[in-house]
Amino acid sequence: MTPMDLAFMHAPTGLALTENRIVRQCNLRFAEMFGDQVDAFTDMPLERLYPSLKDYEKVERVGGDRLRKTGRYEDERIMRRLNGDLFWCRVRGTSLTPETPFKQGVWSFADLSAERPVVALTPRERDVAILTCQGRTSKEIGLMLNLSYRTVEAHRARLLQKFGARKLPELVAKFSGMPL
Questions:
Q1: Total domain count, the chain
Q2: Where are the alpha helices (DSSP H) in the chain?
Q3: Residue 117 forms part of a structural domain
Q4: Is the dihedral of CA 62, 63, 69, 73 positive or negative?
Q5: Which of 111, 150, 162, 173 is 20 to 30 A from 132 via CA?
Q6: 10: pLDDT strictly greater than 70
Q7: For the residues 35-62, what does the mean pLDDT come to?
Q8: Residue 118 lies inside a defined structural domain of this protein
Q9: Is residue 5 within 8 Å of 27, Cβ to Cβ?
Q10: 35 in the same domain as 101
């Protein structure tokens, strides 16, 4: 192995080289994070590591736009290990072909599960959480989601409880990094 190969394979962060959103090569930390040996990920579609097809497609849409503009993309999102466990992950990528953003890329993955546990949200709680982070009032959210403001308040109360927050600003702070 060359020194560059050793550096890639033993980097302290998960690394993957991708083509058209398929892992062509990954390092030891990536394999450990997602739960198998390095060889198991060769030629694996990244879709298998997302919680849902909807999440996979959303990152393609949002990330593709940013990659075309800047050649780089980063976010924090929930990913899925091969055993099905969900975890928060910081993802950063560089497209080697910005005009075709996912044709070739270099991606890093950092496991955030130690500092940010996954909290299960219903689709409606997620909608309320996102709109709350955008600074919307309960009445505005109610109008947007066709709910009464009291129902929105009930969702917010459950969110406060789930996240162990006492007040709305603390809840919004705990949402930081949530992919919107």
A1: 2
A2: 3-9, 28-34, 38-41, 53-70, 123-133, 138-145, 149-163, 168-175
A3: no
A4: positive
A5: 111
A6: yes
A7: 94
A8: no
A9: no
A10: yes
Which has more pLDDT, 115 or 64? 64
Structural domain span for residue 159 = 123-175
User: Buried (b) or exposed (e) across 130-166, using 16+ Cβ within 10 A?
Assistant: ebbeeebebeebbeebebeeebbbebbeebbeebebe
- CA 11, 14, 15, 16 torsion: positive or negative? positive
Model confidence at 6, in pLDDT bands (50, 70, 90)? very high
Look at residue 179 in the predicted model and tell me its pLDDT.
41
pLDDT tens sequence across 67-117? 999 999 998 888 999 999 988 899 999 999 999 999 999 999 999 988 777
Partner residues linked to 16 by β-bridges: 26, 107
pLDDT for 176: 63
Do residues 73 and 92 make contact, with C-beta atoms less than 8 angstroms apart?
yes
Q: What is the CATH number of the domain that holds 137?
A: 1.10.10.10
Q: Does residue 129 lie in a domain region?
A: yes
Instruction: Indicate whether 65 and 86 sit together in one domain.
Output: yes
Q: What is the CATH number of the domain that holds 43?
A: 3.30.450.20
Q: Which of 85, 111, 137 is the last residue of a domain?
A: 111
For residue 135, what are its two tokens?
């600074």
